[in-house]
Amino acid sequence: MPADAAPLLAPEHIALIDKGVSAIVASRDAAGQPSLMRAVGTAIRADGRHVTAYLCRSQSRQLLQDIAATGQVAVVFSQPLSHRTVQLKADGAALRPASEDDLPHLTRYRASMVEEIAAVGFEARFVHAMLDFALDDLVAVEFAPGQAFDQTPGPRAGAALPAGTA
User: Fold this and answer.
1) Spatial contact of 69 and 11, defined as CB atoms under 8 Å apart
2) DSSP string spanning 11-80?
3) What is the pLDDT of residues 43-55, one digit of tens each?
4) Neighbour tally for 143: CB within 10 Å
5) Where does residue 113 rank: exposed (0-12), middle (13-18), buried (19+ CB within 10 A)?
6) pTM more than 0.85
7) What are phi and psi of 12, to 5 degrees?
8) CB contact set of 127 (below 8 Å; sequence gap of 6+)
9) Domains of the chain
10) Which of 22, 38, 149, 162 has its CA 20 to 30 A from that of 59?
């Protein structure tokens, strides 16, 4: 997205993603077969123009192969209690090994998910088990969102989000 282009995401959508809510990453192979996996962390720049999702390599081999081959990625961000959901899609996703520089994002994400999952009645130990990782097993999927959709259940589900508006 050109630097002078209107922002794709409204501040409220950036805030939802930045808070740290459930994130499912998906792609497809050349034949259209889907692959997906839960992210163990996410990060978004304040302007919403760059997103990173963290995946465990050992659990996401097909998904990572598909992203590497097609560059296509879709990520669904959903708040467990409200089911408020935003989907981002992109072409040109890049993969890199996670590093110690990523740990603050991962720690912040896990803390938020402990709160989010507690709101629906689960203990922190459940979140820690679900989001457990070894740093040397993590891959960062980086992308610039090209499309954004409201996926919250209801009459607007599937509708494109108006660029940069709430």
Assistant:
1) no
2) HHHHHHHHH--EEEEEEE-TT--EEEEE-SEEEE-TTSS-EEEEEEGGG-HHHHHHHHHH--EEEEEE-T
3) 999 999 999 999 9
4) 23
5) buried
6) yes
7) -65, -35
8) 110, 113, 114, 117
9) 11-152 (2.30.110.10)
10) 149
